[in-house]
């Protein structure tokens, strides 16, 4: 019986190993901080969009339940103004939070840079 030999094609494993090794390269503090900052900003943006949508729905509900009547300020307008103030405070709280996160990340980077 004749033996059949199969020719193997060029091995691709070394190239794959190199790319996997590069992917496992440890992340620097700057890389981790950048990723964290992007995640926090994305989260804040989603929260703000959700808050805006909630205020819109709230105002629509108030408009349906309490139609505008008369010329002067009404109870309806007081409720809407209160909802807008609440949303404004929420946005300012989020800005303060993100500012603190960024300041903290900057301080951490400075400390890690000094330690080297």
Question: Any chance you could write out the topology, listing elements then pairs?
Answer:
Elements: H1 13-23, H2 29-65, H3 75-115
Helix pairs in contact: 2-3
In short:
The chain is mostly helical. The chain has helices at residues 13-23, 29-65, 75-115.
Task: Give your account of this protein's structure.
This protein is mainly α. It has one domain (28-115). It is 77% helix and 0% strand. It is built from three helices and no strands. α2 packs antiparallel against α3. It is elongated, with a radius of gyration of 29 Å. The model has no long low-confidence stretch (mean pLDDT 74).
Give me some keywords for this one.
elongated, mainly alpha, 116 residues
- Shape descriptor reads elongated
Helix content: over 70%
Structural class estimated from helices and strands: mainly alpha
The end-to-end distance, rounded to whole angstroms, is 68 Å
Give the tally of structural domains. 1
| Number of helical stretches of at least 4 residues | 3
Write the H/E string, N to C. Answer: HHH
The largest sheet is: none
**What value does the average pLDDT take?**
74
Radius of gyration: 29 Å
User: What is the beta-strand fraction?
Assistant: under 5%
Poorly predicted runs are none
Structure summary, number of beta strands = 0
């Amino acid at each position: 019986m004749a033996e059949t030999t199969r020719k193997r094609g060029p091995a691709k494993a070394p190239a794959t190993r190199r790319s996997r090794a590069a992917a496992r390269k440890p992340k620097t503090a700057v890389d981790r901080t950048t990723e964290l900052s992007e995640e926090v900003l994305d989260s804040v943006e989603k929260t703000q969009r959700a808050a805006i949508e909630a205020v819109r729905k709230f105002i629509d509900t108030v408009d349906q339940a309490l139609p505008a009547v008369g010329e002067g300020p009404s109870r309806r307008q007081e409720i809407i103004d209160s909802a807008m103030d609440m949303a404004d405070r929420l946005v300012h709280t989020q800005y303060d939070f993100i500012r603190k996160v960024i300041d903290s990340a900057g301080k951490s980077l400075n400390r890690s840079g000094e330690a080297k």
